[in-house]
Design a protein that fits this description.
heterotetramer, A mainly alpha (320), B alpha+beta (200), C mainly alpha (637), D alpha/beta (147), A: 320 residues, 13 helices, B: 200 residues, alpha+beta, Alpha-Beta Plaits, three-stranded antiparallel β-sheet, two-stranded antiparallel sheet, 6 helices
Chain lengths: 320, 200, 637, 147
């Protein structure tokens, strides 16, 4: 490998669209979300930079490690979660820019996305707090809840129909290519239920408000995060913000891909705008208007309504 | 669900109802009971305020000087319930609750309102006269209260405490009146009178 | 090394186990000598089979060894053959690795037990039986080894005789297992009546052209017989009892190895002897049984309160994956199934060994009685996490790669046939996978994390002798997850080729052109090309992950860290308990996943009512299953 | 530069943990009112945290009853540094009307130093905002004093 190649890869991984950009854009999305929720509730809301300030402040706090905690797992969990999220971003094509084409596979991303949540679950239960135990259990139930509609959506998108005939793929690259020829999937009426289902899966996977049963701060003291403070907590909050970016970027790749203007940088900016728009539609709106659901309501909703939507889409794609 | 979404989107494009408080000062509503102001010059040291204070926020210290007693009344806002009893009972309106609500302090002393005044030494002769006048009124036979006008300061406490509303006091005209039909002879006025001028 | 030398290796490998079993018994109570003998007896077969990788897997040779040099005469094989093609060697290696690691683990592990002499006798008999099945080229020989294996396994299940559960489990195993053996024997008898031979190669050459009703019955019986040995649904409940009650080192064999003989038998029967796999009815049968096995067992596992019983149900669930994948009858499907088979042996072995370590350290595997062991047993915890992540398919561990291949295979199959049924199979696989994750979160939280139970203060990591086999298993899990290409090239693809191309196997055994003359209408069951519709390269992911992790850690270490650490439990470092003084309160085991269980309460309640634990009921299940399979085969083949 | 950023951040995102130490609920309601659209403390970065481990500012209301004393003190201790303790209303500062009761163990400053006291019974939401802003300032000072 040439030196310049290494340099380019380093830029990809560390700056754009890797670590640095991901963190900043994730924090920006979280800020926009908080601001717009506030405005929807007729409040003024925090400045958009608020999540960044929160992150910095937490970095300066003392890290208290409970005497009961399994220290190694407790401290390692947030960093592993964050790193795996950053790598996941590299696999998702962003408006035609795909840093690493290998591994751009919907099923792989489905599994990679469980790592950060799993890190939170194990980190939380390593803290030895009973609240964290309940939180871990609830978070796991919400993973089980969204995984079924998620895979149905992936299959529905994976088997699209073009005028030439069928295509079957798990490759995001291929999905994007097909869309660039036949227009974004969201304009395909058969995939519309799947898109709605995906919009509902996003907040559940991110752990946003109506579906944040695992981190319910009023009932179980933020669940798995109850004992975390200082830097590890900051990293968890950052991961939460980045998850928003990952999920919305995935939505854009699945349903809004293939819109090209010919200029790469413009495409990327466009994709980022789409990400923000999806954040507003899927997370912010729900966040602003609804109260937290009970865990069994959430499970029921995802296994009936959302899965039903996704399944309807799969059947439509299959038989129409 | 849909009405909520409509509402949310409508609010998004309307003006927020948030007050710009720290930047723009917002006055409290009229009648708000905030920081206490003590007009020391009006005080006649009847001690009513201290007696009625529920939170025990008012304390008095006195210092003997040549000219008289230097009396300092101390109102500790950190212990105050802002019930305004003290202001209510103050005959001289020396205590006032303002609408200032900025009562935030890093240090205890910032929450203390004090006022000092000099109580001149009483004229020696006057004292026996008061003693004498104590005998001016005799207790009634039917057990109803009688007021001694010489000692009464017309503080209206008896009127306020009377369960039957039988007593009316006019501070300006210095009239103490008992409605004998209403009076039930419970003795509450006798108990509460700070000057012990109601005789039963 | 020439063919003349290594053609003897397979038979030596099998015999070493049996001879070892004999010598171990002679050693009596001399522990040192016994361990040396047992150690040699498990290491020699491993070495011999490892030496065979080069000729069999890479060069594609097939080894035939005629016992007593009774070679076939005039196209009839009379003698007993040991025939090793890539598929047999694949399973043979699996067996040898698991047996060797679990054997070394046992040296320390069974110190706490009495009757240690007979343990290794039975252990080596079991290993020899399994090895005999997978390397044999003779149908009746397979049956004999099946019986040796079953009875040794029954003996080992009841090894802890003081435990009434163990005795009961052994009895269940004996009765229901004998149904399987009987079916297999009947099937073999019918095959012999029809073909007048017991040699696999010869049967395979002459049988598929004449599928008479007798042969359909023989197929159904053999299918049910081997299915029973693989504990597929509805033979699964006795597996749970047996795995749970047996010593952990034996559970490794029963779940990782024993069940694989059933899978091996099903491959041999469906793909090789009868070649009915091309028939869509058989595919559907296998896939439906696989899907039911994986879903029912994973939900049963979520209900369990015992670490080892939970693992036992997961073995069947994973066998369900393997059967589903094999039932697809595509190259990718078979490759995925075989890959999952080897991964299952590795990670389930690792998990059973960690369960054994927990039992060794604390004396219980009951989830509600454990908790917070991560502080006392950090090394075991790490090993458990590797195993748990592997079985739940968390990238980049091995479980993910094989599951990913299975998803690809099912979805691709639905693409080829245009049938939505196969896509729904993919969905069932993914949902099962996430439930597997859930039940391991439950185990991790209940056993290793959370609050430490006061009475477990004295627990500590097991001795080095027990840790080393676990580390090796963990390393193999990571290896087969990170280097799938090496695994595919050297192990899986040759085995897949052996599955779909039977001509070389027949010709090597029976003489050249035997297949061509007898198998006139031979068509390979599937296209031998592995094609994938997605992409995943674990190594590059790991590299990126390492870089990202390094970057994140570097940034986080730049700032001064102000950690407050103490082992003294003052109020600052106690867990937040709503202001109360922390007391023991560990939400664990059955308390978890309420939202899930509440919604599925009718299904879960039904399931736990049905699993009565009564041997009679399980016998009824087994016989019903047998009847249904026979009826199905007659109806659709 | 980073240190300065972090120091500034300390004042910009103070998270509250609210402890009711036997309060009559008046102050608690006012504190919630601070989060309503009209006052919206979130625009200044304030947020209610669910656990003391996440908090920067501990807001105590109520006269610290005998029952709650240990719990309050333990919870305050569990807050990581830098932390600021704010008393809300008169009760935690002086026990107010509950002074001298057999069931009251307060005031709070017998046990821990109080950084900010907000007077009022109950304080007006604007006063609470004032107090919290002051607390945020103190937080920054404490953060700068660390190390």
């Amino acid at each position: 490998m040439e030196f310049t190649d290494i340099l380019i890869y380093a830029v990809y991984i560390l700056i754009f669209p890797g670590a640095l950009f991901t963190c900043l854009f994730g924090l920006w999305l979280a800020g926009v979300d908080r601001k717009v929720v506030a405005r929807m509730q007729k409040r003024k809301g925090p400045p958009i930079s608020q999540p960044a300030w929160d992150f910095l402040k937490l970095c300066g706090k003392e890290t208290v490690i409970p005497a009961h905690a399994a220290r190694g797992v407790y401290l390692a969990a947030p960093y592993i979660g964050l790193a795996s999220l950053i790598v996941t971003v590299l696999f998702i094509p962003l408006g035609g820019l795909q840093a690493f084409s290998t591994g751009a596979d919907t099923v792989v991303i489905l599994y990679l996305l469980t790592i950060p949540t799993l890190a939170m679950i194990f980190g939380g239960s390593a803290s030895g707090s009973p609240f964290a135990g309940v939180g871990a259990s609830r978070t796991m139930v919400s993973i089980m809840a969204y995984e079924l509609p998620f895979i149905l959506v992936i299959l529905a998108v994976g088997k699209g129909m073009t005028p030439d005939g069928y295509y079957f793929t798990f490759s995001l690259e291929q999905i994007t290519n097909v869309q660039s020829v036949f227009g974004p999937n969201i304009f395909d009426w058969r995939l519309l239920p799947a898109a709605v289902a995906m919009l509902l899966v996003i907040p559940c996977e991110v752990g946003q408000h109506p579906f944040d049963v695992g981190e319910a701060e009023t009932e179980i003291c933020e669940g798995p995060l109850v004992e975390y403070s200082g830097k590890p907590l900051a990293v968890f909050k950052l991961s939460h913000a980045i998850k928003m970016f990952v999920m919305t970027a995935l939505f854009c790749a699945l349903f809004l891909g293939g819109i090209t203007t010919g200029m790469l940088w413009l495409d990327v900016v466009l994709a980022l705008c789409f990400c923000t728009a999806v954040t507003l539609v899927s997370m912010t709106l729900l966040n602003a208007i609804s109260a937290r659901w009970r865990v069994e309501q959430l499970f029921k909703f995802f296994w009936t309504v959302v899965s039903g939507l996704a399944l309807a889409s799969l059947l439509l794609v299959w038989f129409c | 669900m849909l009405p909520f979404i409509k509402e949310a989107v409508e609010q998004l494009f309307s003006k927020p109802s948030t007050e710009a408080y720290p930047a723009v000062d917002v006055p409290a509503a009229p009648g708000y009971r905030g920081r206490i102001v003590f007009h020391a010059d009006k005080c006649i040291s009847c001690g009513m305020c201290e007696r009625v204070c529920a939170g025990g926020a008012i304390s008095t210290t006195s210092e003997e000087t040549e000219e008289g007693t230097l009396i300092t009344r101390r109102f500790f806002l950190g212990s105050c319930t802002f019930c305004a009893s003290c202001a209510d009972f103050c005959v001289k309106n020396a205590i006032e609750l303002t609408t200032d609500y900025h009562m935030v302090a890093r240090d205890e002393s910032e929450l203390v309102v004090t006022g000092t005044y000099l109580k001149k030494k009483p004229v020696k002769k006057a004292a026996p006269a008061v003693e004498e006048s104590a005998c001016t009124v005799k207790a009634r036979d039917d057990g109803l209260p009688v007021n001694d006008p010489n000692r009464c300061v017309y503080c209206t406490l008896c009127a306020k405490k009377c369960p039957a509303g039988a007593i009316t006091v006019d501070r300006k005209e210095k009239i103490w009146k008992l409605d004998e039909d209403k009076c039930i002879g419970c003795g509450t006025c006798h108990e509460v009178c700070p000057k012990k001028c109601i005789i039963m | 090394m020439t063919y003349d030398v290594y053609m003897h290796f397979p038979v030596i490998a099998i015999m070493t186990f049996f001879v070892g079993a004999f010598i171990v018994t002679l050693c009596g109570s001399k522990e040192k000598i016994r361990n040396v003998v047992a150690g040699l007896a498990v290491l020699i077969p491993l070495t011999l089979l490892a030496l065979l990788i080069k000729p069999v897997m890479v060069d594609g040779e097939i080894i035939v060894y005629w016992m007593g040099n009774w070679e076939p005469v005039e196209g009839y094989a009379i003698g007993i053959a040991i025939e090793v093609d890539a598929l047999s060697l694949f399973f043979g290696l699996l067996v040898a690795i698991a047996v060797a690691l679990s054997g070394f683990y046992s040296f320390q592990y069974i110190r706490q037990d009495d009757a240690r002499g007979s343990y290794f006798t039975l252990y080596l008999m079991l290993s020899g039986g399994v090895m005999g099945i997978v390397l044999s080229g003779d149908l009746f020989n397979i049956y004999v080894m099946l019986e040796v294996m079953t009875f040794a396994a029954v003996g080992l299940t009841a090894f802890r005789t003081w435990n009434p559960n163990a005795r009961e489990a052994a009895f269940k195993y004996l009765t229901v297992g004998s149904v399987g053996s009987t079916c297999a024997l009947l099937g073999i008898a019918l095959v012999y009546a029809q073909c007048h031979t017991l040699n696999l190669a010869q049967i395979s050459a002459i049988l598929p052209d004449n599928m008479t009703p007798t042969m359909v019955l023989a197929f159904a019986l053999l299918f049910a017989g081997f299915g029973c040995k693989s504990f597929m649904f509805p033979f699964h409940p006795l597996a749970a009892d047996a795995h749970g009650a047996a010593p952990s080192s034996v559970s490794v064999l029963i779940s990782g190895v024993f069940t694989k003989t059933g899978v091996y038998g099903i491959i041999r029967v469906c793909y090789f002897l009868f070649r009915t796999m091309g028939n869509e009815a058989v595919q559907v049968l296998l896939i439906v049984i696989g899907c039911i096995s994986m879903f029912v067992c994973v939900t049963m596992a979520l209900n369990q309160h015992d670490f080892k019983r939970l693992l036992a149900f997961h073995s069947i669930s994973q066998i369900g994956y393997i059967l589903t994948s094999l039932g697809l009858c595509t190259a990718l499907g078979v490759a995925g199934g075989l890959y999952h088979a080897i991964n299952h042996t590795l990670f389930k072995g690792l998990l059973f060994l960690t369960a054994g370590s927990v039992l060794y350290a604390t004396g219980t595997t009951y989830l509600e009685k454990l908790g917070g062991l991560a502080r006392k047993m950090p090394k075991t915890t790490i090993l458990f996490l590797v195993g748990a992540f592997s079985i739940s398919g968390i990238p980049p561990f091995n479980g993910f790669y094989s599951k990913w291949m299975i998803y690809q295979a099912t979805f691709e199959k639905s693409a080829e046939t245009g049938n939505i049924f196969y896509a729904l199979v993919t969905v069932v696989c993914v949902v099962t996978s996430v439930m597997t994750l859930a039940s391991f979160v439950k185990v991790g939280h209940s056993v290793f994390f959370g609050q430490l139970r006061p009475e477990l203060e004295g627990a500590k990591d097991p001795p080095l002798g027990m840790r080393v086999p676990m580390w090796i298993m963990a390393a193999l899990c990571a290896f087969s997850g990170l280097f799938p290409n090496i695994m595919l090239d050297y192990v899986i693809v040759p085995a897949v080729n052996a599955v779909y191309n039977v001509i070389p196997y027949i010709d090597t055994a029976m003489g050249a052109d035997y297949a061509a003359t007898h198998l006139t209408s031979y068509m390979p069951l599937m296209n031998g090309q592995l094609s994938v519709i997605g992409a995943w390269s674990p190594l590059s992911w790991l590299l990126l992950f390492a870089i990202a992790l390094a970057a994140v850690l570097l940034v986080s270490l730049l700032g001064r860290s102000n950690r407050s650490v103490t082992c003294v439990e003052d109020s600052k470092h106690a867990v937040f308990f709503g202001g109360e003084q922390a007391e023991y309160s560990h939400a664990a085991g059955g308390d978890l996943f309420w939202g899930f269980k509440h919604n599925l309460r009718h299904y879960l309640g039904y399931m736990s009512r049905v699993h009565t634990g009564v041997t009679n009921d399980y016998m009824v299940w087994a016989l019903t299953a047998l009847a249904v399979i026979i009826a199905y085969c007659f109806a659709f083949i | 530069m980073f240190k300065k950023l972090i120091d500034n951040a300390a004042a910009k995102s103070p998270w509250l943990f609210h402890i009711n130490a036997g309060s009559c609920n008046g102050c608690d309601i006012e504190l919630v009112a601070v989060l309503t659209p009209r006052y919206d403390a979130e625009r200044l970065g304030f947020k209610l945290a669910g656990t003391p481990r996440h908090a920067d500012i501990v807001v105590v209301s109520g006269p610290v009853t005998v029952q709650s004393k240990d719990r309050v003190l333990r919870t305050i201790e569990q807050v990581p540094d830098p932390k600021v303790i704010v008393t809300l209303g008169s009760c935690p500062r002086s026990c107010n009307v509950f002074k001298g009761s057999y069931s009251v163990a307060g005031p709070l400053d017998k046990y821990v130093p109080i950084d900010v006291s907000i007077a009022g019974c109950a304080p007006k939401p604007e006063a609470i905002i004032d107090g919290l802003a002051l607390a945020a300032k103190i937080l920054k000072e404490k953060r700068e004093a660390m190390k």
